[in-house]
Design brief:
The complex is a heterotetramer, with 2 copies of chain A and 2 copies of chain B. Chain A has helices spanning about 20-30, 60-70, 80-90, 105-120, 160-170, 195-200, 220-230, 265-275, 280-295, and strands spanning about 10-15, 35-40, 45-50, 55-60, 75, 95-100, 125, 130-135, 140, 150-155, 175-180, 210-215, 235-240, 275-280. Chain A is an alpha/beta fold. In chain A, α3 packs parallel to α4 (about 105-120) and α7 (about 220-230) runs parallel beside α8 (about 265-275). In chain B, about 40% of the residues lie in helices and about 25% in strands. Classes of the chains: A alpha/beta, B alpha+beta.
C-alpha cells in the first residue's frame, strides 16, 4: 500500500500547457501516473500530446475536467498569482487531493485557499512542494522517478533535493519506499508532518518512517510528540540548518529562525526526547533505517 | 522584505493609526533643521533593518536642535549588527504613561493571521513570551471574516481598563489588521503602543515585514526596498534570482535546493570547516545562473575553496556540468573548485567535468570533507 | 411546550443600557423572562436596575457574560452599524439563539453574520424582527405580553403590529398560543417560515398554526410546500399587500414585488394549492383557526 | 435607493468596468454640444428611476448634433410612468455584435449575493427567466470568500465561446462584484453587456440599487439621491422618517407597522374603497410624527377621508391619541378622520379621542368599512 496516491489516482494537471506543467505531465505519464485531464482556460477542446503517442484531453475549467473524466486528484503548475485560485477551483470541483507545486504563492492567498479547502474536505499538499511519489504506482509533482523503489519506508520531508539525497541513499542501500512526500517549505502548507505520520500509521506496508525537517516553526516538535504518543514504528529524523543564522530566510519562506524559536538544535532535541533517532548527516539516514528495520 | 520604521509608519498612517509625525534625515544638518521645525524634544532614530537599535546606541533623545545634529552625526554611518545606518528618523518625543505591545503575524498552526498583544510593551515580546507568557493575549483571525469588532475589543481589553483607551485601541487593532492585509505583510508590529498622560493612544514604533511573494502586485511597496545597508553580494544575488546569504566562513557553497544547501553547510561544519555562505541556485541550473553564482562567491575574499553540491532530479546534471565549465572559462578564479554531481545523467556529467580538469565526486560526504581539507590547508 | 424560548431561557440583552434595550429589558423581566445579563462595552461591572428592585449584571463583552451567567440566548438592541457584529459576537460566545431586533442593518453585513452564525450552529431570529413570545414562559423582543395567552396555536409572521392584530383576535376568542414568532421583514433573515414550521411540528402542544406573510420573495410559497409534505396540523394563512404596487418597497426592506414575482396573489394561490386555508381579512384568522381546532 | 444610469456608470467606471464615455445634459443645447464633442452618432437616454424607458420613447439614436438636440428637447420634461425626466445622458453609439445580461443581487434563499448572467441580453431578464430559464446561469457568491476567479470564469463562459471575450467578461464579473459590495448595493446590473465587431466587451447600460441601510456610511452615494422625479410627498415623508408611498385612491391611511399598513390597504379595497397611500408611522408614534403624517396625507387633494389604524403593543395608544388631538389642532383638515386604536391603554385613548370629537373604533373592520363609506359618500 501507500498513502495519498496510488494506482487509483486519476490526475488532472492544472496548467498543463505551461512550460513546467507540460514537462512534468509527460514525466508523470512516463512514470505510469494515470493523467486523465489537463486544464488551461481558453484551451478547452485541445489535446495534450503525452509520451508514446498517448494523449490527454484539455478542459477550460476544473468542473468540466472532473465531470468528464472522474478525476480525484490534481496537481498545480500555474503561476503564483493564480495558484491559490487554482486550489480553490479544484476543491470546488470536488477534487479530494490537490498538490500545489507552484513556488512564490502569497501567504495570505493561501490562508484563504486553505480555509476554502478545509470547508470542502479537500486535502492540499503544498504549495511550494515537490509533490509525492508512491514507487511503482504513481507520482504527482516533480520528484524524480528513477531514484525511488518500492519497499517498506515512508518518507516525509520539507525539502526537495535533500529528499532526493535521502531517498537515493535508501534505494542504493536496497531499502524501498511506500510513499515519499515532500510537504514543502512554505509557512502555510496544507499537509503537515503529522498528517503524513497519521497516514503512514494506517498503511500496513509502512514499517519505518523517515522525517526530514528544517529550521523554522514548530511542526517537527509537534510531530515528534505525535510519534511518541501514536506510533509504534521506528522513526528516523534529520534536521537541516544547524548552521543557519537567526532571522535570515534560508531559501524556503518557512525556513527562518525567529529569535530563539525554530532552531535545528531545538528540533533535534525534540526528536531525541520522543524516541526518534536523529541522523547527523544525510548518509546516516539510510544506515539508521537499515538498523531499525533489522532490529 | 523588512521595512524601515519610517516606511512602516507611512503605511500605518495611511491606515489611520495614530502615529506621531516624523521626518527622515540623511545628514546631521537635516536632522537639526527637522528638530527645529518640530520644536521641543525630539528622538533621533537609526533607520536600519536590524533589531536592538536602542542597545546599539542608535536611538537618542535630543533636547535641542543642536543636540539632534550631534546625535545624528554619531548615528549616521554607525554599524549595527553588520548593517550601516544611512538614514535617521526625527520625531517629536512623546510623554509616555504606559507602553503596550501589539503585533500581528501569519501563524503556521492555524494557517491564519494571529494577533499577539501585551500590556507589557516597549520590550522584546519574545522575552515576555519567555518570562511571563500569561501577559500575552493571542487571537487567531479567520481570514474568511477578517478581524471582527468584538475580537478587536477583546484584544484592546487585554491592554487597558479605561473604556476610552479600550475604544482607541480597539480601533487601532482593526486599522493594524487592514494595514497588514493591504500591505501583504507577514508581520506588523507596534511596540510600544503608548498612552499619553492626556489619554491618547499612539504608535511610536513600527515594524513591518512584507511577504516577498506579495511584492509582484505591490510595486509601491517594492519601491520601499532599501539595499544600502545590506551586503552588496546579497543585492546582486537577488537581482540574479539566486538566494544568497553571506556567512563568516571560508568554504563557498553552491547547491541546488534550499534544504540540501542547508544540509551542505551543516556537513561543512561537521567536517570541521566553516561555510562562507548559503546559496541556492534553484531548480533550473542554467549556465547563466552558475556564472552569477560563481561571481558572487568569488567576490568574497574570505573564500578559500568553492564547493558545488548538485543533486539532479528533474535537472540534468550534464547541463549543470556544462554550465560550470562554461562559467569558469569566463571568470578568473584562483581558489580550488570541488564538485559533487549525482542523479540524472551523472556519468555524462562527471565525464565532462573530468575532461575540463575538475575534481568531481558522487558522494556528498566525500566532496564536503575534501572541500574542508582544502580550505583548512590554504 | 413551546419553540425556541421557554422557562429554561437564560437571556443576555446586548445593548442593555441603550434607550430601547433598557426599556425592553424591563418589559421582558416584568413578563417573567429570565434576564441573566446585559452587555454594553465600557459599562462592564455596572448594574442594570430592573423592575421590582431586581438587578442584572452588565458586562463589557458577550464572552464574559456567558462565562459568568451561563446564558444561552441573546437579544440585540444595538444600533444598525453594530448589529451584525453583535450577532457574530453572540455566536462566537456560544449563544444558541440570537434574536436581532435592530432595524436598518445593512444587508451585506447580515450576509456575513448569517454565514458566521451558520458556521457556529447558532440560530438567528431577524434582524428587524419583533422577536417572539411563549405565553406564560418567556418573551424575547418587543412583542406586547398582554395580548397573548397560553394555548394550542403556533403563530409565525413576517410582520409586527399585524401579528398583534392576529394574536389579539385569537386571544379574545379564547384561543391561546404555544409560541408567537415574528421572523422579521428583511430580505436576509436567519429563521424562516420553514424553520418555525419544523419546530412547531416537533412541539406536541402545537395543534394548529397561523402563518402571516406578505409580498416579496418566495418564502411563503416554499413554506406552503413544506406544509403539504410534512405537516399534519391545520394551517391558516394570511398575506398582506394584495393592493401593493410592484417595484415599491412597502416599509419592510423585503416587502417588494419584483416584476411579477412575490405578489400576494401568487402566495395566496400557493397556500390554497397546498391545503392552507387563506384568511381574506385579519379577523378571519381566528375564525378559521377556531373551526380547524374544532374540526 | 435606485441610481440613475449615469450614476451607476460612474460607479462601474470606478471599478474598472469598460463603460463608454457619457455626459449628462439638462437642456437640448447642452445635449447638442455634448453630441458635437463626441462626434459621430450618439444615444440620448432619459435619466429617470423607472424601467421601460425605451418603450416610452426615452432612448433615441441621433445621427447629428442637431438631431441630439431635437431628441433631448422631446425627452426632457417627458413623463415616464409618473416620473418627470430632468436629465438626459449623451453617449456615443456603439457597434454591437452581441448583447448579454449580467446582474448580481442579494438572494434571500442562500442569504448571499447571487449572479445571474445570460447570453440573451438587451431584453428584460424576467422575460428570459420566464420563457427560457435554461438561458440563465446563476451563481451564489459565498460572502466569506467573495467571487472567486474560477467562478467568474464559469459565469463568463456562459456568455461567450471565444477565449478573448471570456477573459474580458471574467474580469468584468469580478469588477461588478467589487462595485456591488463597495457601493453597498442590493442589485447591480449590466444590460446589455455588448461585444463590438472589434472584439471588445463593454457595458452600455447600467442599473444599480443601493441598500438604504448602507447609506449612512456612504455619504458619497447618498449624494447621488435625486428626488426631482419623485412625488414631493414621498421626499417629505422620507425627510420626516416616515415610509410613504402615493397610490391612486381616496382613503388616506395612517398606520403603525408595515404589515398592518398593507393589511389596512387591503381591507380598504375589500370593502370597496381605494387607498390613497401606504403610510407607516413606525413604532414610536410621537406627536411630531403624527403631525407630519397628517400634513402629507392632507396635501393630496384626492383624499376624501383619513383613516388611522393603530395597534398599541409597546406603544401606548393614549400617547398616539394625544398626538392626533394635538396635531389636528395645528393643521386645517377639511375631510373626516376616523380612528381605530387598540392595545395598550386603549380605554384611556378612546376617551381622549371622544372628548376631542373624533369617531373612534376598536375594530379594524369597523373603522375601515366606515372610512370607505365616508369616502364613497363624499
Amino acid at each position: 500500500m501507500s498513502i495519498f496516491i496510488d494506482e487509483n489516482t486519476r490526475l488532472v494537471v492544472q496548467g498543463i500547457t505551461g512550460r513546467d506543467g507540460s514537462f512534468h505531465a509527460r514525466q508523470m505519464m512516463e512514470y505510469g501516473t494515470n493523467v486523465v485531464a489537463g486544464v488551461t482556460p481558453g484551451k478547452g477542446g485541445q489535446t495534450f500530446e503525452g509520451p508514446d503517442g498517448r494523449t490527454v484531453p484539455i478542459f477550460n475549467a476544473m468542473d468540466e475536467a472532473v465531470a468528464s473524466t472522474g478525476a480525484n486528484t490534481s496537481v498545480i503548475y500555474v503561476p503564483p498569482a493564480f495558484a491559490a485560485g487554482a486550489v480553490m477551483e479544484a476543491a470546488d470541483a470536488g477534487i479530494d487531493f490537490v498538490v500545489a507545486i507552484t513556488e512564490g504563492v502569497p501567504v495570505l492567498d493561501m490562508a484563504r485557499a486553505h480555509a476554502f479547502a478545509r470547508d470542502r474536505g479537500t486535502r492540499v499538499l503544498g504549495p511550494n512542494c515537490p509533490g509525492l511519489i508512491s514507487p511503482g504506482k504513481a507520482k504527482v509533482g516533480i520528484l524524480p522517478g528513477q531514484i525511488v523503489a518500492p519497499g517498506p519506508v515512508g518518507l516525509v520531508s520539507r525539502s526537495g533535493t535533500l529528499t532526493y539525497e535521502a531517498v537515493y541513499h535508501l534505494t542504493t542501500a536496497g531499502i524501498g519506499q511506500t510513499t515519499c512526500v515532500g510537504i514543502g517549505g512554505d509557512p502555510l502548507i496544507g499537509t503537515k508532518f503529522i498528517d503524513c505520520l497519521a497516514a503512514f500509521k494506517d498503511d500496513p506496508d509502512t514499517k519505518a518512517i523517515v522525517m526530514i525537517g528544517e529550521i523554522g516553526g514548530t511542526d517537527e516538535q509537534e510531530a515528534a510528540e505525535y510519534v511518541k504518543e501514536n506510533l509504534d514504528l521506528p522513526v528516523v529524523g534529520f534536521i537541516a540548518g544547524q548552521t543557519a543564522p537567526p532571522g535570515r530566510r534560508m531559501g524556503h519562506a518557512g525556513a527562518i529562525i525567529s529569535g530563539s524559536a525554530g532552531t535545528a538544535a531545538e528540533k533535534m532535541e525534540a526528536f531525541e526526547a520522543n524516541g526518534i533517532q536523529v541522523a547527523k548527516r544525510p548518509v546516516e539516514i539510510a544506515e539508521l533505517i537499515r538498523a531499525a528495520l533489522q532490529g | 522584505m523588512d521595512l524601515h520604521e519610517y516606511q512602516a509608519k507611512e503605511i500605518f498612517r495611511g491606515a489611520g493609526i495614530p502615529v506621531p509625525p516624523g521626518k527622515v534625515a540623511t545628514t546631521p544638518e537635516e536632522a537639526e533643521a527637522f528638530a527645529r521645525e518640530f520644536g521641543g524634544m525630539v528622538v533621533v532614530k537609526a533607520q536600519v533593518h536590524s533589531g536592538g537599535r536602542g542597545k546599539a546606541g542608535g536611538v537618542k533623545l535630543a533636547k535641542t536642535p543642536e543636540e539632534a545634529r550631534e546625535h545624528a552625526a554619531r548615528i549616521l554611518g554607525m554599524d549595527i549588527k553588520g548593517l550601516t545606518v544611512h538614514k535617521v528618523l526625527i520625531t517629536p518625543a512623546e510623554d509616555i504613561d504606559t507602553e503596550a505591545y501589539v503585533g500581528v503575524l501569519v501563524d503556521r498552526n492555524s494557517q491564519a493571521p494571529m494577533f499577539m498583544v501585551s500590556a507589557e510593551g516597549g520590550v522584546d515580546i519574545e522575552e515576555v513570551a519567555h518570562t511571563n507568557p500569561d501577559a500575552i493575549r493571542k487571537l487567531t483571525v479567520d481570514p474568511r471574516y477578517g478581524l471582527l469588532p468584538h475580537q478587536a475589543y477583546w484584544l484592546a481589553n487585554a491592554l487597558y481598563d479605561d473604556p476610552g483607551l479600550i475604544r482607541q485601541a480597539q480601533k487601532v487593532m482593526g486599522q493594524l489588521y487592514n494595514a497588514f492585509v493591504n500591505a501583504g505583510a507577514s508581520m506588523a508590529e507596534i511596540n510600544p503602543l503608548i498612552t499619553t498622560p492626556g489619554g491618547q493612544v499612539k504608535a511610536i514604533d513600527a515594524k513591518v515585514s512584507i511577504d516577498d511573494n506579495e511584492l509582484f502586485r505591490r510595486p509601491e511597496i517594492e519601491a520601499y526596498r532599501d539595499t544600502s545597508g545590506e551586503p552588496e553580494a546579497e543585492t546582486e544575488a537577488r537581482d540574479a534570482d539566486l538566494t544568497f546569504i553571506k556567512l563568516d566562513g571560508d568554504v563557498g557553497c553552491c547547491v541546488n535546493g534550499a534544504g540540501l544547501a542547508m544540509a551542505t553547510m551543516d556537513l561543512v561544519k561537521y567536517y570541521g570547516g566553516e561555510p562562507a555562505n548559503f546559496l541556492d541556485i534553484g531548480g533550473s541550473s542554467s549556465p547563466e545562473k552558475v556564472v552569477n553564482a560563481l561571481k558572487i562567491i568569488t567576490a568574497d575574499p574570505a573564500v578559500k575553496v568553492i564547493l558545488f553540491n548538485i543533486f539532479g532530479g528533474i535537472t540534468r546534471t550534464d547541463d549543470v556540468a556544462n554550465g560550470i565549465v562554461e562559467a569558469t572559462r569566463n571568470i578568473d578564479i584562483d581558489v580550488p573548485i570541488v564538485i559533487r554531481l549525482t542523479g540524472t545523467n551523472e556519468e555524462l556529467a562527471l565525464e565532462i567535468l573530468k575532461n575540463a580538469g575538475f575534481e568531481a565526486y558522487t558522494s556528498m560526504d566525500e566532496v564536503v570533507s575534501k572541500a574542508v581539507e582544502l580550505a583548512n590547508r590554504a
